[in-house]
Design a protein that fits this description.
alpha/beta, Rossmann fold, 2 domains, 6-stranded parallel beta sheet, 8 strands
Length: 218
């Protein structure tokens, strides 16, 4: 199969944002008198968007919609201040994106993070990566695993889904990739396990970013 483009997830795939997300949510929790969580817990909270992260981080007794909305607003405000404190591209991601330029592929980012924050992080940390499209969560684009955003990218790039690789690190990403008809590739350096990725339809697994180059060559 000849691939003509690649869609990348952001958190856990291109950048390690775990500490900034955890610090921001823990600040909100402590401000309102709730217990904080350790870093490992946030690996399981991340993936379905910030509002879902807020829901998961709150005690079960406080998961009422009006409270979730209130703390979601606080989390977004807090995360805007902190999103570039510790977040960095994973090792060799910049080199990978540079190498992909020689393959004449169209590249895009599709994240469940709010669109404004997705664009801000990509612009700040991956400024020379030549992404054709950067799409985050907003009102007109349903969050993953709904494939709408991936199909929109397919349409705008002018590449049929079968000729797109989708690289992500969670069950949500693998479900999105398969629902959209793209080639699902799991990133094992991210937030979730090999078992989770395989169980949710990963067609290929990468132990480290530069293995994507090997995959494309073979």
């Amino acid at each position: 199969m000849k691939f003509r483009g690649i869609i990348f997830d952001l958190d856990g795939t291109l950048v390690n944002s775990l500490e900034d997300i955890a610090d921001s949510m823990n600040n909100v929790l402590q401000r309102y008198g709730f217990p904080a969580h350790d870093l490992q817990a946030y690996k399981h909270f991340i993936g379905n968007g910030v509002k879902n992260l807020v829901r998961e981080a709150l005690p079960e007794s406080s998961r009422k919609e009006e409270l979730i909305n209130r703390y979601y607003g606080s989390m977004i405000e807090e995360y805007r201040k902190n999103c570039l404190n510790k977040t960095r591209p994973y090792e060799s991601i910049v080199e990978l994106l540079d190498e992909l330029a020689s393959f004449n592929l169209k590249l895009a980012v599709f994240s469940n993070k709010d669109h404004e924050l997705t664009e801000r992080i990509v612009t700040a940390l991956l400024p020379k990566s030549n992404f054709e499209l950067v799409i985050g969560s907003r009102a007109e684009i349903p969050r993953k695993p709904n494939p709408f955003g991936a199909l929109l990218i397919s349409e705008r790039l002018g590449i049929i889904p079968e000729n797109l690789v989708y690289v992500g690190d969670t069950d949500v990403d693998m479900k999105t990739a398969n629902s959209a008809g793209t080639f699902a590739v799991g990133a094992l350096w991210g937030f979730r396990s090999k078992e989770e990725l395989i169980a949710n339809g990963a067609k290929y697994l990468l132990n480290y970013p530069m293995e994507l180059i090997q995959m494309l060559r073979t």
